[in-house]
Design goal:
heterodimer, A: 11 helices, 3% strand, B: 338 residues, mainly alpha, 75% helix
Chain lengths: 287, 338
């Protein structure tokens, strides 16, 4: 019999993992909703954030906080560069052709980033902050898990507030719903897309940095993260940011519990088959 | 706009392709390295022909090619060695039927549910990951991540009887399969299936309204594609001498095949073979850059996708047309490679 306190501790780890997935999934959903580009490089952006933060804190010798912030900023700069160059070329085409071109170009970008980063970061890294374990009643929780949950929650809430409350966010939601209508009322979809793409890469960078404090990550994890993010985003509804966030947390918790009780292989199979079933039974909003 | 291939010209071009494919290994008979590379190229050509049918002609982006190929290989190897104890040759059709049935099932369900290209890709990607985990996890049957050792189709004996490398024998076996697959493809696309595929791709609602059974056509395409992919997976097991889950992963198979098909030219008869050849050539040419190979490959892919999104095949067939126009001023037949 597993103690209740252990169950709760596993659940909290699951929520931390789920929040990480939710951030990546939201990153995919935002960009797809606005520009029909499925960013298959999102996991690489996250890993890039982890690696930059690690490099800046160990090799350059910055303190953790500045290293993490500058690391995330570097991810954003890469996001700007990708948006100005590759995505500008992708946005020239329309409809299904743009969807496919977006998939292939970001897949190429993912391979390019993987191949480049492997040369500089060949092993696996973690961003240990030395946070203490926290014990509440009987439940022992790693401090880093709390950090992931708090930071992710803040980022998600800020993102929702941005979309609901600011002019830019409202303009973005207009483009989401009706691109032609947005143009007619004077919103420039290309500019909105650029801002949102960079925002999504920053969110991925934050996700990579905070998740790096709980786990040891390497370049090869990037592609894996992209796939999970894709699943989360599709299961949550490719046009719904709230749905994606919820799906991320749900799948993270399911995966972590399944892993704890029945082991990694069976847990992964259950996770993927859950996604298949959700895809098939849910009334699908076709992208 | 795509035009249907004319069966006669496409068939004669398939003949040309067969001759070129059959002559190529003769120059490298002594080199195991090149023969191995050539076998891999032929295996990937089979995979790309399968993807061309599913994705190119019926918009079903199968991202579980690795799982289908691996599944067929396990069915063939485990049934022939552990269960029935008979020649693996007899189990090749069974393995192909198993992967074909899975492909048909997925196509049937997605056609019934009217899933679009992105949702089919996500659905199949999930199946890929689930099956991939199962191949590793079912250690008792598959041998887990260390692989299931497979004695083989007996090409070593044929090879030593003829006094050549076993990989040379495998090359010619694969050439036969590739040429047969091309002939099936041309017959399929030039006939009523090709017409129906075209109609469904243009507008599936309109196609259904003139009496085309959309679900049936998509299911048939899914079956054929998956069976070919299964054949390639079985040949991969023969090539490696073992069924190794790592050989049938998403990055090892699906990503590569997708790239080959796009670079060669989707919906063209010879796009898969040209694309597979191009990608293997690029990889060979990049080997001097050593550890930067993956990065350069990724950059090259981006450029190809952005500027050659219709693939190399239209470029090549335009070149052939121009040569022909210079030879004989009569306009004559177009070869319809577009």
């Amino acid at each position: 019999m597993v103690a209740t306190s252990t169950l709760i501790a596993v659940g909290i780890d699951g929520i931390a993992y789920g929040m990480f997935l939710a951030l990546l999934g939201v990153g995919i959903t935002l960009v797809f909703g606005l520009g029909e580009v499925l960013n298959l490089a999102i996991g690489m952006f996250a890993i890039f954030g982890t690696l930059m933060a690690h490099y800046l804190s160990t090799s350059v010798g910055l303190g953790s906080a500045p290293a993490f912030l500058i690391g995330i900023a570097v991810v954003g700069i890469l996001g700007v560069a990708v948006d100005r160059t590759l995505l500008s070329l992708v946005y020239r085409s329309d409809g299904e052709e743009r969807i496919l071109l977006g998939i292939f170009v970001t897949l190429g970008l993912s391979i390019l980033l993987e191949g480049t980063l492997t040369n500089f970061f060949p092993s696996r890294y973690s961003l240990s902050l030395g946070l203490p374990r926290i014990t509440v009643i009987d439940i022992t929780i790693p401090g880093s898990s709390i950090l992931v949950i708090v930071v992710s929650a803040v980022v998600l809430v800020a993102l929702f507030a941005f979309l609901r409350g600011t002019f830019l966010g409202k303009a973005a939601r207009t483009v989401f719903q009706d691109e032609v209508g947005a143009l007619l009322i004077g919103v420039d979809p290309r500019r909105i897309r650029a801002i949102v793409f960079v925002l999504a890469t920053l969110v991925a960078g934050i996700a990579g940095v905070v998740y790096g404090t709980t786990a040891t990550l390497g370049v090869t994890d990037g592609f894996q993260f992209t796939i999970f993010a894709l699943i989360v985003s599709i299961v949550g509804g490719i046009r719904s940011i709230e749905g994606t966030a919820a799906a991320g947390i749900l799948l993270g918790v399911v995966a972590t519990y399944a892993n704890f009780f029945i082991g990694a292989y069976l847990a992964s199979i259950i996770l993927f088959m859950t996604a298949v079933i959700i895809l098939l039974v849910r009334p699908v909003v076709e992208a | 706009m795509t035009s249907l291939p004319l069966p006669r010209t496409e068939r004669s071009w398939t003949g040309v392709m067969a001759i070129v494919l059959a002559l190529a290994p003769l120059f490298v008979l002594e080199s195991t390295t090149y023969l191995r590379l050539y076998n891999q190229f032929l295996i990937f050509t089979l995979l790309a022909i399968g993807l061309n049918i599913a994705f190119g002609h019926t918009d079903q982006l199968f991202l579980f090619m690795g799982a289908l190929a691996g599944g067929a290989a396990y069915v063939m190897a485990v049934l022939s060695q552990d269960v029935l104890g008979i020649s693996p040759w007899l189990m090749i059709p069974v393995g192909m039927a198993a992967s074909g049935a899975l492909g048909a099932l997925v196509s049937w369900v997605s056609a019934k549910r009217k899933l679009g290209v992105i949702l089919i890709s996500i659905l199949t990607l999930n199946l890929q990951l689930a099956l991939g985990e199962a191949y590793v996890g079912l250690r008792g049957i598959t041998g887990g991540s260390t692989g299931y050792s497979f004695v083989g189709l007996g090409l070593d004996t044929v090879g030593s009887a003829l006094g050549v490398n076993r990989f040379a024998v495998l090359s010619y076996l694969l050439i036969v399969f590739v040429v047969l697959a091309q002939l099936v493809y041309v017959k399929l696309i030039a006939g009523k299936y090709g017409l129906a595929f075209e109609a469904i791709r243009e507008d599936d609602l309109a196609a259904a309204s003139i009496g085309i059974d959309v679900v049936r056509y998509k299911t048939v395409a899914g079956f054929l594609a998956a069976a070919l992919i299964g054949l390639a997976g079985i040949m991969m097991a023969e090539f490696q001498g073992t069924v190794l889950p790592g050989d049938y992963g998403f990055a090892a198979i699906d990503v590569m095949v997708l790239i080959m098909l796009i670079i060669g030219g989707i919906r063209t008869t010879f796009g898969p073979v040209v694309g597979a050849a191009a990608v293997f050539t690029i990889e060979e040419l990049l080997s001097p850059v050593g550890q930067w190979e993956t990065a350069v490959f990724g950059a090259l892919l981006i450029v190809l996708f952005l500027y050659f999104r219709r693939g190399l095949m239209p470029v090549l067939s335009n070149g052939v047309d121009r040569l022909r126009d210079r030879d004989e001023s009569s306009p004559g037949v177009t070869d319809g490679h577009s």
